[in-house]
DNA sequence: CAACATGTTGTATATTATGCAACATTCAAA
DNA sequence: TTTGAATGTTGCATAATATACAACATGTTG
């Protein structure tokens, strides 16, 4: 069904270009005439999946997308199952707790639970983080073989901070350490001043990985160090891995 | 673009039938053969908007839907603008704070902020509530004229609890009271034992309504009564209505 | 086991998505 | 302001594709 495939490509383009699409832009990327791109986007908007800004004429995500995503979360039991334990973990550590799944060389954030403190480092669900720099990403990569990881990264990973690992070999060494340690660490590799640790789970039936992480600003652990947070995360991991039953905790 | 219109209908059907679609079901509702429905859903799954359960063969929402919805929230500034103040309101009242927009005779929940207490009455964003029974729904209906409301409800509103208003006349009397009071009340009309109050805002430019509500179990106000929550909500409303500037606080 | 649903795939045909062109707007530079 | 280019939309003939029908494999139910 080719016209639907094109619609999917347009939606992917929307996500990748930051949430706004213009007709001309779409026509160029999907190699169709402006006229047909116009008709395509208009149809998507007619259904409510997109909506067109009456002023700028740009297309954005519509309300239907929120409704579909809600049914995703309802079906993806894991998110709801994990919610309470994530809230407990956020309470214990006083920091933001994340849940993410792999998406190519990125991590798709499915849920965030903010800690009790007013200022928290977090994004809304649906955002994607670069896997090589995020703790969740490295925890998920650690579930794969080195060979698979090399195949995934065609180019060298992008540098985001001075701490980011920018070569695949360097990344693989870090991931080997992650496997030994049992948890992944991102020390300011994604954002300056922010550390995060993460454990990865694997659902053998769906052959899908899930990661849970805790992120925290450096200054918050000046006195206590990382250990209390690591302990809390590992305790969470043991409880979560067994409680879910058919979801196996791998690391 | 007819095939895209059909895809939109299928997605709408997915949402309305609770998050799972079967090929046969789709073919019947959209009046197409099973073969073509199979091809349609397979295309949507190829793009990641849906995914097919390998065991049951049923189609569910896919990861792309979460990504699109995220870009919706990013663009719909209001949700992000409101987040901090909603968190403050949840802290003050110690109850769940909701943000919703109208969707026919229902309210689409765009955001929930849970109160600090462990057990909270809340749903995930994307769910829809019946407008005639939810406080947010009545706050939003109060922005419309009685004539518009009558046109919206073709049949009598559905009964959900013993308190639900099940005739349009009864509902209109309640909404008239809402307009006078400045806020809407749902006293166990949606769920037994749960009250909620709500105020509605209107964005004159987008000609779109937005409601904020606080929900709380009856037992939690045995000593204090509703007034503290009402005061907090109205203070929020003044702040929110003026702070946004171009969004007018209507009630 | 039989009768029945269900999901998928192949093929000829008829519907439809496409390319091209024209038009109205918008925007930037002259 | 004027000119020129870029943008979004619509109409139309044609080529591409979505469709109906059928057959098949695989559960499901009586």
UniProtKB/TrEMBL annotation, chains A, B:
Span of domain IclR-ED: 64-246
The keyword Zinc-finger is annotated on this UniProt entry: no
Residue ranges crossing the lipid bilayer per the database entry: none
Keyword entries, A-Z: DNA-binding, Transcription, Transcription regulation
Residue ranges of every copy of the HTH iclR-type domain listed in the record: 1-63
Database matches in PANTHER family: HELIX-TURN-HELIX TRANSCRIPTIONAL REGULATOR, ICLR FAMILY (PTHR30136), HTH-TYPE TRANSCRIPTIONAL REGULATOR RV1719 (PTHR30136:SF35)
Name of the protein described by the UniProt record: IclR family transcriptional regulator
Species assigned in the record: Microvirga puerhi
Lineage, opening ranks: Bacteria, Pseudomonadati, Pseudomonadota, Alphaproteobacteria, Hyphomicrobiales
